[in-house]
Amino acid sequence: MIKQNKIVVKKKEVSQPPKKTEYSRLIAVDPSLTCSGWALLELNSERLIGTGKVRSLPPKYALAYRLADLQEKLYRLYDALYLGPTDILICEAPTTMRDPKAALKVEQVRCIFETTARTRRIEVPGRINPRTVHSEVLNMRGAQMSRNIIKETARSVASNLYGKDLLAIGLPATNLELKKHQDIVDAILIGHVSVAKLKQAERTQTDIIQCFLESRKRV
């Protein structure tokens, strides 16, 4: 005789919606296999409070070693900045595929920044397309301008927006001097757009993931 076990189905409790996280800082990244620039901004004050570069091993090393070394450096960087669940990371999104091999390498770098952040429970809601920076910050619309003009304009805008903050953290604030730190300049402007998107999401009570998805679709 087979004894049948009585199956008891418990009534599912209605769970409360998760408490909204209050984010305090945003780290923006211009990823590159050679040298990635980053910029740290405070969300409440919108001040630039830190910048830096993460340099990879030179090309004489195998790609696997370079990526592994980069990941270790990122763990140390996030530790040094005390990044965690109340912080947000945004990377620059890919643009063209003129050189697919190079684009795939940069995508691996981008993914290491993001996945390493997620292991520390840093929020990674999306990416910012550089064309969004061009249109919304540099006021460049229509046909794509030359790289030199774009970069020079980016330095001027970054200097105007964050000149005092740059000097406070020990970086030059003039266009000419910032030319040596173009990767940081690009990260600063990515951060500037990202902070604006987050403020908009806060005002409209929009989920920040949807906010970044929408910005990517419009480009």
Characteristics of this structure?
about 220 residues, alpha/beta, Nucleotidyltransferase, domain 5, about 50% helix, disordered N terminus
What can you see in these coordinates?
This protein is α/β, with parallel strands linked by helices. It has one domain (25-218): Ribonuclease H-like superfamily/Ribonuclease H (Nucleotidyltransferase, domain 5). The protein has helices at 63-80, 100-119, 130-136, 147-168, 175-178, 182-204, 208-218, and strands at residues 25-30, 35-42, 48-55, 87-92, 127-128. Strands 3-2-1-4-5 form a 5-stranded mixed sheet, with helices on both faces. Helix 1 (63-80) packs parallel to helix 2 and helix 6 (182-204) crosses helix 7 (208-218). The termini are far apart.
SSE blueprint:
Elements: E1 25-30, E2 35-42, E3 48-55, H1 63-80, E4 87-92, H2 100-119, E5 127-128, H3 130-136, H4 147-168, H5 175-178, H6 182-204, H7 208-218
Parallel strand pairs: 1-4, 4-5
Antiparallel strand pairs: 1-2, 2-3
Helix pairs in contact: 1-2, 4-6, 6-7
For the largest beta-sheet, the strand count, sense and barrel status come to: 5 strands, mixed
What is the terminal separation in angstroms?
A: 69 Å
Major sheet: order of its strands?
3-2-1-4-5
Would you count the extended β strands for me? 5
Question: Briefly, what is this?
Answer:
This protein has 219 residues and is of the alpha/beta class. The protein has helices spanning 63-80, 100-119, 130-136, 147-168, 175-178, 182-204, 208-218; strands at 25-30, 35-42, 48-55, 87-92, 127-128.
